[in-house]
Amino acid sequence: MSEIRRTEIDEEWAHSAIVEAGNFIYVSYCMKNEGQSIENQINGAFDILSERLETIGLTLKSVVQMDCLFRDISDLFYLGEIMKERFEGIYPARKAYETKFIRDGIDFQVDAIAFREN
């Protein structure tokens, strides 16, 4: 691909949820199950990430890097077990951060970079 493609564009917040640039795909603002348990929010974020990747023919196995944002970094404890289930041994590099979110009830968000093999 020689062009940059942007999809799921949000004009109000001025961002694209998916940006394809060459063989790299950048996926942002993956979150779901706001107000539910941290386990449900982590799984929900991975559901959204998976759904977005599927729209361009990829799966979670194509993810090479993730930034995991937590309201409370001590919830990092739950991430490893959920990743073992969801990523089936093909794990991306990842970082975890504690941050403030714009709304109460959001406890987890993930942004990811995926790679499309030729």
UniProtKB/TrEMBL annotation:
<dbReference type="InterPro" id="IPR035959">
    <property type="entry name" value="RutC-like_sf"/>
</dbReference>
<dbReference type="InterPro" id="IPR006175">
    <property type="entry name" value="YjgF/YER057c/UK114"/>
</dbReference>
<protein>
    <submittedName>
        <fullName>Enamine deaminase RidA, house cleaning of reactive enamine intermediates, YjgF/YER057c/UK114 family</fullName>
    </submittedName>
</protein>
<dbReference type="Pfam" id="PF01042">
    <property type="entry name" value="Ribonuc_L-PSP"/>
</dbReference>
